[in-house]
Specification:
Structural class: alpha+beta
Largest sheet: 3 strands, antiparallel
Strand order of the largest sheet: 3-4-5
Oligomer: single chain
Shape: globular
Length: about 150
């Protein structure tokens, strides 16, 4: 299997809205993504390197919106969450941060359109396939993992 190498120029070509992001900033976000959010190792359940590259691009875009696109912290004033409402007279704004049912991580990903796309694209990897008899006793098999027998009566 292939280890994904991040190419900032290719990322910016696919996501032109980040054309002003420096290579260093984009590489830092890729490092965060590959070390804490999506495994970039040989036993990753997502075997297709093209799809995994796209997942990393989604994560880098998501992280850039969350943490800012600039290397200078003062210029990173983007609020978390999506704009839910705005008022012009006497300036008012609201940002939504809904906690969907099912996973606490979902709310963090759903703050940006890129995170929401990543969350949707990886839904199939967040569940195990269950094989068994109608009694409910069987075995569970995660993607690429060896079979794990569930003892009877559990």
């Amino acid at each position: 299997m292939t280890i994904i190498t991040f190419v900032p120029a290719a990322f910016r070509a696919e996501y032109p809205e980040f054309s002003t992001v420096t290579d260093g900033r984009a590489n830092n976000m890729f490092t965060i993504a590959s070390q804490s959010l999506l495994d970039n190792v040989d036993n990753n359940p997502q075997m297709d390197p093209t799809f995994r590259t796209q997942l990393f691009y989604m994560l880098v875009a998501h992280l850039l919106l969350i943490f800012g696109t600039s290397d200078t912290p003062v210029l990173n004033n983007a609020p978390p969450g999506r704009i839910n409402g705005a008022t012009e007279g006497t300036v008012s704004s609201q940002f939504e941060y809904n906690m969907p049912q099912g996973s606490a991580m979902a709310a963090w990903f759903l703050q940006t359109k890129y995170g929401a796309l990543y969350w949707t694209a990886t839904a199939r990897f967040r569940s195990a396939r269950y094989f068994g008899q109608s009694s409910g006793v069987g075995f569970s098999k995660a993607y690429g993992a060896p079979y794990f027998n569930i003892p009877g009566g559990v």
